[in-house]
Automatic annotation (TrEMBL):
Lineage, opening ranks: Eukaryota, Metazoa, Ecdysozoa, Nematoda, Chromadorea
InterPro entries: BACK
SMART domains listed in its UniProt record: BACK
Name of protein: BACK domain-containing protein
BACK domain residues: 117-220
Gene for this chain: LOAG_05715
Length: 350
């Protein structure tokens, strides 16, 4: 009797990219050329039938598909509105070639356009790209162009993480420390809820680099904030009336930076950080047998004599006393010695 042939499930050859408007069917063989993630899923036999990209911009999804269909040459131009979504999708699918093109596009654009630089600072903070190599390069450019971007209205929309990384840099391009004061107060005053981050932002100001009149102006700025002047002034007094507020950077390699060193006093840099060489200790050599001396054997007669001596010197068995903890008045040392002596005599009589 011939058994009916079991129908095997057909191997998925296309994946549906679902967006909030259209669905796009992508061939797996084409997708594997650009996506390491899909290639791994296909090898494991776990390729899904559909990927849901409904939370992303439709133009970003279509631009991504055009990039693969045209062999890496996109038809649509990458714009600010789709840049963040394209970057996140490319990271999810592990599309290294597309990420490389996006990084090149970002680095060229932030160098040429300050408005795009501020937009990129917001994007990399939201996409958790702060500690990537591309993110570090963007921050280096932002630190260099700080005199320009800090005066832009859109700079107040940069998230907290990016602001702290910029204002705390030793190599920040400033004319004086008061530039940091104005930028910090302006960013805090832009939104009422930022009052909770006052300490984190104000501690980026290096109070030791401010002249006496600039310190007075600093507290005047905090007092001028509408609705939150009292709270802001309290945060400022707490931040700057602290020993940590007077810390200075004295690294020798930072001698050329305006923010480093004690500019109000001596400018000598006293700390050099040498490169340390790690030295590993050698393991101790194994102990040779010749180094170990064995205990000489004793004769039976000597052993018997030792046992007799032990028995002769054995003391009298004493009864163990049970001690309890009780609240007793404190006594002097003389009184305690007399009591111990009486207890000892009583024990001997027993």
């Amino acid at each position: 009797m011939v058994e009916p042939s079991k129908t095997r499930p057909e191997k998925i050859r296309k994946i549906i990219f679902h967006s909030n408007k259209d669905d796009f069917a992508i061939d797996i063989d084409l997708l594997k050329e650009y996506s390491k993630k899909i290639k791994q899923l296909e090898a494991d036999g776990k390729v899904p039938k559909m990927l849901d990209f409904s939370n992303y911009d439709v133009i970003a999804v279509s631009t991504l598909i055009d990039y693969m269909a045209t062999g890496g040459r996109t038809k649509a131009r990458i714009t600010n509105s789709i840049l963040g979504d394209m970057t996140e999708i490319a990271r999810l699918l592990e599309m290294e070639s597309l990420l490389t093109k996006i990084n090149e596009f970002i680095l060229i654009s932030v160098t040429q356009n300050e408005q795009f630089l501020v937009h990129t600072l917001t994007m990399i903070s939201m996409q958790i790209l702060l500690d990537t190599s591309m993110g570090k390069k963007v921050f280096d450019i932002a630190v260099n162009k700080f005199p320009i971007i800090r005066k832009m209205a859109s700079f107040n929309e940069v998230p907290l993480d990016a602001i702290l990384r910029i204002l705390d840099r030793c190599d920040l391009n400033i004319s004086s420390e008061y530039d940091v004061v104005e930028t910090a107060i302006s960013w805090l005053a832009a939104k009422p809820e930022r009052i909770h981050f006052s300490y984190l932002v104000l501690r980026c100001i290096r109070i030791a680099n401010l002249a006496p009149d600039q310190r007075t102006d600093l507290f005047a700025l905090t007092s001028s904030m509408s609705n939150y002047a009292q709270i802001m002034s309290a945060f400022a007094h707490y931040t700057f009336n602290n020993t940590n507020a007077h810390r200075v950077c004295v690294l020798a390699e930072h001698n050329s930076y305006k923010r480093c060193g004690n500019r109000s006093g001596h400018t000598q840099f006293v700390i050099n950080v040498p490169s340390r060489k790690i030295v590993y200790r050698r393991k101790a050599p194994p102990i040779k047998a010749s180094y170990v001396t064995a205990k000489p054997k004793t004769s039976p007669s000597q052993a018997l004599n030792e046992i007799k001596n032990i028995r002769m010197h054995e003391g009298k068995d004493l009864k163990r006393s049970v001690f309890g903890i009780s609240q007793k008045p404190r006594t002097t040392r003389m009184e305690r010695m007399e009591r111990y002596l009486e207890e000892y005599k009583r024990m001997l009589n027993l």
